[in-house]
Amino acid sequence: MTPRVRKRVVCNLQIARVHLMELPRAAWAAAAARAGQPPRLNLFFTHRITKPAVVVNHAWGISSGVPSPRPDGHEPTPTRAEAAMTTTMMRLRQHLGLASSPAAIYTSAIAGLGNNTAHHRRRTTRPRIMSSSASDSASPAAPFEKPRAVVKKVLAESQPEGQGATVRRSIGRHELRSLDPFLLLDKFSVSKPAGFPDHPHRGFETVTYMLEGAFTHQDFAGHKGTIKTGDVQWMTAGRGIVHSEMPAGDGVQKGLQLWINLSSKDKVIEPRYQELESKDISRAEVDGVEARVIAGEALGAASPVYTRTPTMYVDFTMRPGSRLHQPVPEGWNAFVYVVEGEGVFGREKAAPTTAHHCLVLGPGDGLSVWNRSDRSLRFVLVAGKPLGEPVVQHGPFVMNSRAEIQQAMEDYYYGKNGFERASQWSSSA
Ligand code: FJE
Ligand code: FE
């Protein structure tokens, strides 16, 4: 590192410190006021200078009050406060003249904002609950007896995430905090220079499925690769990964990222990748319905992916006029995310669901779908065996207790217990 460069880094860091300590507080206070609760937040920041002219900055907001645990053990993540933090960071970047410098400052600011009462008070509209009736069975051709009905329908609105990126979050947004074992589903749309620069993960898996375009991934252990349209990267973060995920092509790069929780025993395993190229993904086509099987099996096709937390993940494309009866293991939590077109889910007489909606499925052993529109319907069906363990999430760390979260943050900060390479590494441009 040359002295000139070092000076610049330190300078950025100092400016960043001053602003970070002030601006987010204001942003948090405003977000708290909107949420109808006092701004009682302490923030602390970890700084790492990883290479010349690049300050990778992970900012964590910590609520000073101890949130009362929800029955499911899940801590609320304030999407609005998170968005406010992202906006603040973007302003700060502009102020510092860093707007065009890749990965100059990156924040993954996710925090527990206050307690759960506030979380519920903020919810203005209750999700519509659709009920199923016993007489409403699927057509006789259905290979199952207890068709699953849609019990919740949520629109995944666009929100800022990462560095200048946009996601439509379905699982993980406040109306749908989690659906054990799933923590998050983002449909991302990202153009250069935006992306998801260097950030950590511990305690769960991320599954990135490219819908259009390409994304390059680099991690602190030297793992590097680009996934293109139709490819899947199944990353088991286990005890720790630090990586960057950035668009590889020109124009908008689109995909889905799903976060699957790991059981307590799997949270500490060595990280692992399973990568599937589009051509190697099992496909089947039956009566106008095409299935691309990312995990589990459908229409006679099976995926080679090993799922530590038992998971089914299928990308269906249904031609106009087609119908589908897909078994879904009983006892598993299941949802649908509509990518394109519109379809009728669960009950033959249900109102059609259009793109960007997430449907949570009720109990049963299968899902029926009808495409009565005049264009193709594309959706993913995801199901997983619930872990039934407490979930304590703090941004990219998902553990079973607050103490384990504290440990994860310490390990990341000090480079211990799986994060040894974190302090030496930063992604290359
Ligand atoms: C993250 C902020 C983030 N959705 N979809 C905070 F942006 C991320 C993160 C992503 C992400 C990455 C891709 Cl490629 C697609 C995403 C969030 O990287 F992990 C935290 N904690
Ligand atoms: Fe990531």
Automatic annotation (TrEMBL):
Residues 313-418 form the Pirin C-terminal domain. GO terms for cellular component: nucleus. Keywords: Nucleus. SUPFAM superfamilies: RmlC-like cupins (SSF51182). Residues 127-143 have a biased composition (Low complexity). The keyword rRNA-binding does not apply. It is found in: Nucleus. Residues 166-260 form the Pirin N-terminal domain. InterPro entries: Pirin, Pirin_C_dom, Pirin_N_dom, RmlC-like_jellyroll, RmlC_Cupin_sf. Its main location: nucleus. Residues 116-145 are annotated as: Disordered. Belongs to the pirin family. This is Pirin-like protein. It comes from Miscanthus lutarioriparius. The lineage of its organism: Eukaryota, Viridiplantae, Streptophyta, Embryophyta, Tracheophyta.
